[in-house]
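Can't paste images in this forum, so I'm doing it all in text. The chain is below; anyone willing to post the predicted structure tokens underneath?
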Amino acid sequence: QVQLVESGGGLVQAGGSLRLSCVASGRIFSINAMAWYRRAPGKQRELVAESTSGSTANYADSVKGRFTISRDNAKNTVYLQMNSLKPEDTAVYYCNAAFIATNGVHLYDYWGQGTQVTVSS
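Text version of the structure:
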């Protein structure tokens, strides 16, 4: 069993910052890729940022220059530092990951439960 648990969401004023964390636990040998998605009310889920197995970071155009994804592989944790937040960043943010389990099986498309981020104007 593998679990992803997000934390760090909350209410912040426009221009403020938040740091989201996602901790993976369970029978994990290594993490291939981790990413953050978000779903705003009435909108489809969208990719915000991803960190590939080679530690390459990719970002949605809407967050480039404001958000930074980082990983601590020793802690099986991915972070999303969000600066200069805007009301349009309001959404539920989800962590997504792909792993290699301790038995060598590749696991894909695991999701956390989500954490709410609300940015007031």
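The CA atoms of residues 2 and 26 lie 4 Å apart. The first strand starts at residue 2 and ends at 7.
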